[in-house]
Design the sequence.
């Protein structure tokens, strides 16, 4: 049974799994979903033209997010212990937090997406990173 103090890692896992599902939905939904979710017009146009590139990139992102969800579940004690648990959970947390804080650099490095996309995605990533951080703090001694 999951320890009560590890609920933040359960929430973190659910958030990463939800993000993975949204990415899969984007693949299924096609060009309009790429546009609606802020992937940028070039990705939407490639999807519309039948290119496999958007689906492959989006599937890879989804797979990474599912691995991150699995690590959070393992940290919460729901799944068996995974290799390098502490280090990888710290890295996952850092990626989420840094992505959340890197609003301006990301806007500069990856133009073509809406301002709303950048604000929402950054806020979501920062929020998920904070949840991961809280989960790490609560489960640290058992990791």
Sequence:
């Amino acid at each position: 049974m999951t320890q009560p103090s590890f609920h933040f890692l359960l929430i973190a896992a659910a958030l990463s799994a939800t993000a993975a599902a949204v990415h899969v939905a984007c693949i299924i939904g096609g060009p309009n979903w790429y546009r609606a979710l802020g992937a940028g017009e070039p990705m939407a146009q490639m999807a519309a033209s039948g290119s496999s590139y958007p689906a492959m990139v989006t599937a890879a992102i989804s797979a990474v997010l599912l691995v991150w969800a699995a690590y959070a579940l393992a940290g919460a004690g729901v799944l068996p212990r995974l290799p390098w648990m502490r280090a990888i959970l710290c890295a996952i947390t850092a990626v989420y937090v840094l992505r959340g804080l890197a609003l301006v650099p990301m806007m500069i490095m990856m133009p073509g997406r809406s301002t709303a996309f950048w604000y929402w995605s950054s806020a979501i990533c920062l929020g998920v990173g904070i949840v991961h951080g809280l989960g790490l703090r609560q489960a640290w001694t058992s990791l």
